[in-house]
Amino acid sequence: MKVLIMAGGYATRLWPITKDNPKALLPVGNRVILDYILEKAGELELDTYVSTNRFFEAHFRQYAERYGVGLIVEDTLHEDEKLGTIGALKNALDELGPDDYLVIAGDNLFSFSLRDFLNSYDGGTLIAVYDVGDLELAKRYGVVVLEGDRVISFQEKPAAPRSTLVSTGVYVFPRRVMERIDEYLSNGNRDSPGYFIQWLLERGEEIRAYRFSEYWYDIGSADSYLEALKTLLKESHVEEIQISPYAKIIPPVVIKRGAKILGRSMIGPYAYIGEECVIENSDISDSIIFRGTIIRNSTIWRSIIDEKCEIRNLELRKSLVGGHAKIQRGE
């Protein structure tokens, strides 16, 4: 069996912060999403590969070297050229050869052990499922109906979900199923694995489900990204920074090297402040601020601000600000 982490998308739902940064490398706490996945995969001692695109290849090289994993690069540079998840699976299969594959979406954060997951594998297709507890929310995902642990219905993004149990982006596809990808791609949706699962089920493939609880985050929106930060940031990580004696830090927070926390600023709880940021007389909580950003005389709550921005004299709530933006209100 091989492990394949899918990180070749262009993450347009999180633009502009993912326009030049791959979603799998967004920070969550003091690590990035891919760190969490590779740490879990490392426990399996299986050959592991990350699938990405030519545009983001350089971003992933250092992680491949650090963790000793392979890199599969699809030859695309733009959103309109992308192969889609199933197309990228075919690309990886052509390069790595036939085998059973544990496939993991590179934007997923999940609580369960991959070893426990594989203990449920019996040679047939296996998917990890999670109860989101809300029918409206379930409409965004592949909705599963079970009989015991056997999948009897799978609908990708249904208008009227039959359950709140959804597929989470962690799958095992046996060799015989991987060898059907060509057949599926002749007339199938290249992008979402859910349609492939649905197609398999309609053709008599037995699919079993591994149910888990605690937490699961599909980092596809600002809200899910910030909720993941709140769940996974358990303790503070404060590097070498300059901090005013009048500033206050409310844990947990991450404040990276070279940041300056000046004046009567209040940072936290659940704040990520990137390298070389300058925060002066400002309150920041439940937010992610990327490197090199300057924030003065402002209040930031449940917002994501990309690198090298300047924010002055503002109150930002539930905002997403692209890189190099300059926003201010008159003094």
Features:
331 residues; alpha/beta; Spore Coat Polysaccharide Biosynthesis Protein SpsA, Chain A; UDP N-Acetylglucosamine Acyltransferase, domain 1; six-stranded parallel β-sheet; Nucleotide-diphossugar_trans
Structural summary, described in words:
The protein is α/β, with parallel strands linked by helices and 331 residues long. The protein folds into two domains: 2-232, Alpha-Beta Complex (Spore Coat Polysaccharide Biosynthesis Protein SpsA, Chain A), CATH 3.90.550.10; 237-328, UDP N-Acetylglucosamine Acyltransferase, domain 1. The chain contains nine helices and 30 strands. The strands form seven sheets. A seven-stranded mixed sheet has the order 5-4-1-6-11-8-12, with helices on both faces. The chain is elongated, with a radius of gyration of 21 Å. This is Glucose-1-phosphate thymidylyltransferase.
- Helix-residue proportion: 10-25%
CA(first)-CA(last) distance:
62 Å
CATH topology value of the largest domain: Spore Coat Polysaccharide Biosynthesis Protein SpsA, Chain A
The dominant shape is elongated
Output the number of helix runs: 9
Q: Would you report the number of β strands?
A: 30
CATH architecture descriptor text of the largest domain: Alpha-Beta Complex
Average pLDDT works out at: 91
Number of domains: 2
- Beta percentage is 25-35%
**Name of the CATH class of the largest domain:** Alpha Beta
Overall structural class, as computed from helix and strand content, comes to alpha/beta
* Unreliable parts: none
Strand order of the largest sheet: 5-4-1-6-11-8-12
* CATH homologous superfamily classification of the largest domain: Spore Coat Polysaccharide Biosynthesis Protein SpsA, Chain A
User: Strand count, sense and closure of the main sheet?
Assistant: 7 strands, mixed
Rg, Å, rounded = 21 Å
Keywords: Transferase
GO molecular function: transferase activity
Domain Nucleotidyl transferase: 2-234
Domain Mannose-1-phosphate guanyltransferase C-terminal: 249-313
